[in-house]
Amino acid sequence: MSASLSGKAAIVGIGATEFSKESGRSELQLCLEACKAALDDAGIAPQDVDGLVSFSMDSSPSIMVSRGLGVKELRYFSLVDYGGGAACATVAHAAAAVTAGLADVVVCYRAFNERSGRRFGSGDAAVQMRGESPMAQHFGYYAPYGLITPAAWVAMAARRYMHRYGATSEDFGRIAVAARAHAATNPNAWFYERPISLENHQSSRMIADPLRLLDCCQESDGGVALVVVATERAQDLPGKEVLIAGAAQGSAHDQHMMTSYYHEDITGLPEMGTVARQVWAQSGLGPQDVQTAIIYDHFTPFVLTQLEEFGFCGRGEARDFIQDGAIHLGGRLPLNTHGGQLGEAYIHGMNGIAEAVRQARGTAVNQVPDVRNVLVTAGTGVPTSGLLLSAV
Amino acid sequence: MIRPQPLIGRDNAYYWEGVAKGLVLIQKCTACGSLRHPPSPMCPECQSLDWTTVAATGRAVLHSYTICHHPLPPWEQGPYAVVLVDLEVEGSDSGARIVCGTRGIANEDLRIEMPLRLTFEDGLVFATPEAAS
Fold first, then answer.
1. Fewest beta carbons less than 10 Å away: which of A196, B51, B116, B131?
2. Which residues have C-beta within 8 Å of that of residue A232, sequence separation ≥ 6?
């Protein structure tokens, strides 16, 4: 617990655009709309922002975001690598910055036209990689064989997980059914009022065996922003702050990008284990202290693995843990109450952090009773991050 | 869109040059003897920059696989398998693992732990049933 940032910084504002399949405007505009909404929620004038953090994959440069917001002087700006693994890390970097005095008001943002623009699921990016960069050469071990989509990269690990632990496609399907049940009662979700059954999941077409269509998150257009300040400052603001009890990044031994296939055992997510150990140590809390969790759900199988890495259950036991409605509203650990990226929208994990803030504030549309702590995780299969948020 | 070609640089040229000659070469640290794949200029075990290569014997065991249905790249005619295989390596107990395609085996016949052999085609590596070669 020494020198921990636990409790020293808070999320004081959340903002988002609508979630769609074709936003009809630029990624920079989506970003600015989300940032302004988050600052309005926080009760902070845009001119008072002095820090910006985003994803290295984001197309909106901090200086253009800063210009749009009318920021007087920007003192802290950073980008986090590795796709959706960056989501919770943006808040970790912001918390570190405000705790260390490098900035007072940091906005974390992610905005894209991922459905109407460049679709991650198309495989084009992997096929079109060229040049001398080590990452391009790495994807060159896979692209010639057609291993080019995020679904297929995850499927390789999921198949081995099924073999080792006896998990089935139906076990993966239960994650999707819960997400879509929650999306069905969230008016902001793309799949509002459109729940699915396990039979729907089982009859959905194969994408990358063993992953079916309904194991895969959506592709979405939209933006989300979050405002982070020191807890002392948060107390002077009009809104309800949510404390950052734990915030951490993780990358494992012999880590690769979506293709950590070279560990003796590929059925875990050791990078998320690194995040889990830090988040629990920083906060002094554990799985029993969490009332609801936002577990990154680009593809259903890794939700199971993450539950295991955080110690909600033992290795290979997540399929039992999620049975009988345990992860639905009213269950022992409701997951992805906004509908997740399967049901609400795929905003690279940032919409999940916003939902965690709502749960800790007590303002979620699918509110879990008596929420004290919410766990949030970022993208899996890549170097990743996590947050533990606490109600004040 | 044609099938992408391997991307070759200073650190991994040996691998693709080997494949072009019908060999899977695995990097071996000259200092500590450990094997590593994918290629890296530095040994993760002892940080030595000195390395050589050893050849895979061609015998392999299926570690995992996926059957890709969608999106179907234009160079494929239907659902195709991509496999992760554990390779036997000359003079090594630890072996190595690579990703490759398949030849001569139906997608539905793939079983984790099944024995396979490596075969080579158009500068790429494929796994094929043990009896077929």
1. B131
2. none
Contacts of B37 (CB under 8 A, 6+ apart): A262, B15, B26, B27, B96, B97, B98
Res. B132 pLDDT band, cuts 50 70 90? low
A120, A137, A160, best to mutate vs chain B, most B CBs in 10 Å? A137
Taking the C-alpha atoms of residue A98 and residue A95, their distance in angstroms, rounded to an integer, is 5
The pLDDT score that the predictor gives to residue A1 is: 43
The minimum CA-CA distance between B51 and chain A, rounded to whole Å, is 18
Q: Which residues of A are catalytic?
A: 296, 346
Q: Give the gap in angstroms from C-alpha A347 to the nearest C-alpha of chain B.
A: 22
Concatenating the DSSP letter of every residue in A9-22 gives EEEEEEEE---BS-
Q: Which two tokens stand for residue A237?
A: 């603001």
A242-250/B51-68 β-pairing: unpaired
Residue-range domain boundaries for chain B: 13-132
Break chain B down into helix, strand, coil percent, rounded to 5: 10, 40, 50
Q: How far apart are CA A153 and CA A120, in angstroms?
A: 12
Domains (ranges, CATH) in chain A? 1-114+222-244 (3.40.47.10), 119-148 (no CATH), 155-213+246-380 (3.40.47.10)
Note the pTM of the prediction, 2 decimals. 0.97
Write out chain A residues lying below 8 Å of B80, CB-based: 146
Query: B131 to chain A, minimum CA–CA distance in Å?
Result: 23
- Written as one string, the DSSP assignment of A46-115 is GGG--EEEEETT-SS-HHHHHHHHT-S---EEEEE-SGGGGHHHHHHHHHHHHHHTS-SSEEEEEEEETT
State whether B69 and A205 contact (CB < 8 Å). Answer: yes
Is B97's Cβ below 8 Å from some Cβ in A?
A: yes
Q: Which parts of chain A register pLDDT below 50?
A: 1
Residues of A with CB under 8 A from a CB of B: 121-123, 126-132, 134, 136-149, 152, 155-157, 159-160, 163, 205-211, 254, 256, 259, 261-262, 266
Classify domain B13-132 at the CATH topology level: OB fold (Dihydrolipoamide Acetyltransferase, E2P) (2.40.50)
* SS3 (DSSP) at A364: coil
ipTM over 0.85? The verdict is yes
Residue B18 near residue B55 (C-beta atoms within 8 A)? yes
Query: How do residues B6-57 score in pLDDT, each as one tens digit?
Result: 999 999 999 999 999 999 999 999 999 999 999 999 999 999 999 999 999 9
Sign of CA dihedral A327, A385, A246, A360: negative
In this prediction, residue B93 has a pLDDT band, given cuts at 50, 70 and 90, of: confident
- The nearest alpha carbon in chain A to B63 belongs to A160
